[in-house]
Each structure stands twice: as structure tokens, then as C-alpha cells.
Amino acid sequence: MKLDDLKPAWKLFQHEQQFNQTERMDVLALIEQTHVVETAPLYTQPLLINALLFLLFLVSCQGG
Amino acid sequence: MDQKSAFVRIVQQHMGIINSLCQIYYQQAEDRQDARQDIVLQLWKSYPSFRAESAISTWIYRVGLNTLLAKKRKEKRRPQSQAIDPLMHGRMEVASGVDDDLLLLRSLIAGLKDTDKALVVLYLEGYKNKEIAEMLCMSTSNVSTKLNRIKKDLKKKYQNTNHETR
Lengths: 64, 166
Hints:
The complex is a heterodimer.
Chain A: H1 7-18, H2 27-39, H3 46-63
Chain B: H1 3-13, H2 15-25, H3 29-46, H4 56-76, H5 86-95, H6 100-110, H7 114-124, H8 129-135, H9 140-165
Helix pairs in contact in B: 2-3, 2-4, 3-4, 4-7, 5-6, 7-9, 8-9
């Protein structure tokens, strides 16, 4: 057997995968979801919340 | 047509490539779904810089394979569950009488190393060694050496599989 002999099988495999009903995905929903995550306001990000809480803690320590 | 609609159309037209790559690198449906999402997101990120100097399918192969190889490298740092022996899996299916060549292809490729899978896929797709080298950021001589070794390995595995199933 030569590797070239498997080329038709590869084409068949790829053609099968093009119409694979169980492996469909909503491309538009996926990229729109990413856009929302990327443009989400900074205050929703956990790292910033932690930093703000830490600053609050420092300020309250100074006050005491 | 806006950028998003054009992108969605391209991806849907070439979903066969993306699904084939994910099938080759992952056995579990959930893993394949994750891999597919990663590839589509990487394609979306690099879409604005796509200049159409190469064919769309070449761009999808380049981004897809490099995404999968990076993902696999990351996963290797984490402990993995035991995968099904691809050769054994192939043999079981061959015995059930489904398309032999297709199953042989799947089982042989699934048994290769991650980078070797990428080389074989691009070779079967008809790319020249120089093109494969550019797509995977390797030297042309490295590609031809590796492909020769893979061909020998596959031949040996094929002979063994054929021998054992008789």
C-alpha cells in the first residue's frame, strides 16, 4: 500500500464530514458571543473586581 | 455582504475540512466540539488579515492545524485519560464490513503523532512539500524526511493490520 492510495478515501472522508449532521455548529452565534465577551465593560472582569476590593481593604485599614 | 456574513458563508462551505481535522485529532464528541470552536474563533481573529493570496482552503488548513497542534501541546501538560487504541478501533470496524479504505485511513492516521497527522493530512490533500513546510513553519527538507518516515511506518502498520485481520 502507498500513502497515495489513501487519497480517494481522504476525499470521501472530507465529503462525509461536510454533511455530518451530528457535528453542526452555529458559526454566527459563536463569533457574536466572542464579540460580546471581548467588548464587555472592564468592571465585569474578575481581576479588576479583586483589585478594587483589595484597595478598599487597604483604605479601610488606613482608616482604622 | 458584511464581514460577518461573508465569514459565516466561508466557514460553512469549508466545514468538511474543519470537521475532518477535529475527527482526526479527537475521538470524543465533546473534545471535537471544543476544537471546532477554537478553530472557528482563530479563523475569525485572523480573517481581517486574510489577503486571499492563497486559496481559502489553504488558509483554513493552516489556521486549523496550527490551532489543533497548539491545543494538543497545551493538553500534554495536563494529565490525560486513556484513549482507545486507534488501530484496535479500526480493526473492529473493518471486521464489521464498512468501507475498508476509509476506516483504514482513519485508524492509521489516528495512530500517528500529532505533527505527523498534520503532515499526512496536507500530503493527502495534495500540497507540495514546500507548501506544507510554509504552512507548518518547518523546513522543506524536514517535511520530506518526515513524510518518507511516515510512509514507511504506515506501510509497516498496514502490513501488520492486514496480516492480523486475516
